[in-house]
Amino acid sequence: MKEQKYANKRALIEAALIASIATFFAISFIFIPILSLLLFLLPVPFLILSSRHGTRYTLLSLIITSVLIGVLTEIVFTLFVIMIFGPMAVIMGYYIKRNREPYAVIGFGALASIISIFATIQLVSAIGGFNVINSIAGIIRQVVESQTEMLMSVNLSTVSIKEMANYLLMIIPGMLVVQALVSAFLNYYLTVAILRRLRYTQYSLPEFSNFILPKNIVFGSFIIYALTFLTRYVKGIYHTSLVANVTILFVCIFFLQGLALISYILKKVKILRLVRIFVIVLIVLISPLLTIVSFAGLIDSVFDIRKLRQG
Asked: Which end of the chain is more exposed for a tag (fewer CB within 10 A), N or C?
């Protein structure tokens, strides 16, 4: 009985501590804008708390965090932080606690994040009385227009520049989904790495070279693509935009597996870990390689080149 009371007391203290840390970082993003690049890692403390003490303490910590941020800043920022990152923290923490497969945790976390992002956009639009997507579109147009002279200097015509701007506007939903996937992926790996440092050995941190998508991903992708192309016969659906967003989504998904395949090959030929990391980062930064690496990921998904599903 005493041990249970002590465990509950310790969990409450950790929940309050995590809330304080999360609040500090959330507020620091306002005063130090450069730190906003790390905002997507905000769920990590809550994921650690959930893995150690369960979902209810995570919910309690999120409530405390929302109150603290609300008192110290504005209600809109509070809603933004909690709605965007709260569901991801709860869902991923729940599945990490139960030691589910990495792709399952990442998948459920990304789904929760996607729903949260679009729900937040709708809520902010309703409260603020303006369309968030249209505002983002306006910013993109301004950026492209401000760079018109520079783009024309590299032999891009005005028509090409307008097409570029329209394409960027068209794939906004797809890029938001990709952002959710990347965020879930990084939050998962960072959380498990920290838990391993804390000697929670029941949580295994798989090598990135062993990362693999579900075996039915190719068939699922084919079905989604087929249904997407059939939307050209449905009135009221912007077929071109839908195809572009679905393409962006699957290219990025298979790009992830392609990177894992490259990491596996580099490991097999005994390339130093630091060099492997440098090569992977370099590939990510070199955008023309996106399609090639994605195709490699697709091939690996079909033929299981690394033989991971047989192991």
From this structure: N
Which phi and psi angles does 138 have, rounded to 5°?
A: -60, -40
Which has the closest alpha carbon to 213: 287, 279, 299, 280? 299
User: Cα-Cα-Cα-Cα dihedral of 157, 163, 165, 170, to 10°?
Assistant: -170
Q: What is the pLDDT along the chain (311 residues), one digit of tens a residue?
A: 666 777 788 888 888 899 888 888 888 877 777 777 678 888 999 999 998 888 899 999 998 988 888 888 877 778 778 888 889 999 999 998 888 888 788 889 999 998 988 888 887 777 766 666 667 667 766 766 666 666 566 555 554 656 666 677 677 778 888 888 888 988 998 998 888 888 776 777 777 888 888 888 888 888 888 888 787 777 766 777 788 888 888 888 899 899 999 999 998 888 888 888 888 888 887 767 888 999 999 999 888 888 887 65
User: Of 101, 75, 100, 106, nearest to 88 (Cα)?
Assistant: 106
**Confidence (pTM):** 0.79
Q: Could you tell me the domains of the chain? A: 1-135+171-206 (1.10.1760), 209-311 (no CATH)
CA dihedral 190→191→195→197, nearest 10 degrees, is 20
The burial of 126, by beta-carbon neighbours within 10 Å (0-12 exposed, 13-18 middle, 19 or more buried), is given as exposed
188 burial class (0-12, 13-18, 19+ CB within 10 angstroms)?
Answer: buried
Token pair, residue 46, equals 């809550």
